[in-house]
Amino acid sequence: MEWTRSNTLALACQKCTHCQGLGLRGDSAKSPCDCVLRAIFRVCHARFVEYAKTDGYLRQVRLEIQNGPERRGAWGHKEEEYMADFLLLAKRHLTEEEYKIFRYRFLLGADWRLCARKMHTERGDFFNSVYRIMKKMGRAYAETEPYPLFPLSEYFHGCHREQTSVAFMPPPPKVVPIRPPVPPKPEQSEESDEPVRKVA
């Protein structure tokens, strides 16, 4: 994902002291701010909670058209696939200690007091870990290739990018001579005994 001001401005916190509400930070201003990554995580987590609360029999089976010359389609439960990707990316990118906090806080919905008591940490250390997890997973959900979880519209409905067709230019024709080539003159050896006839 290419981080630009157009896709980070709406997600940035207006009171952020690092990016001043622009969403980009750094010398080259090409890396997203932490507030943007946490906002991405909140959007993805809210969709996960929405699907987790609904019953499985109420979810729709969708036909997903795959790109290619034959344009084949595949039936599937997009909601279950999203929840599975949400959890698998967390297991892949988080350490064992971070995944415990992720599980207690975001999957089971425990209060911060219960989580801090369960993890034997203070309040400040616990919230620092939570912010670090949100930052790490927000980046993972947005930068996973080739199918990121964010933006959600591209994940659920596919990404339709218009490509301009370019005409095929044939190779230039070969140069055809106007007259046929003249055969080379036969070479005469100097030691030839035949006299040279002169034309009168």
Can you walk me through this structure?
The chain is mainly α. 44% of the residues lie in helices and 6% in strands. Helix 3 crosses helix 6. The radius of gyration is 34 Å and the shape is elongated.
Tell me, briefly, the overall form: elongated
Strand content: 5-15%
Residue ranges: pLDDT <50 for 5 or more in a row?
Answer: none
Element order: H for helix, E for strand: HEEHEEHHHHH
Pairing-aware structural class of the strands and helices? Answer: mainly alpha
- Helical residues, percent: 40-55%
- Note the main sheet: 2 strands, antiparallel
> Quick check: average pLDDT?
82
State the end-to-end distance: 90 Å
Number of H- or I-type helical stretches: 7
Q: Any idea what the radius of gyration is?
A: 34 Å
Strand order of the largest sheet: 1-2
**Tally of strands:** 4
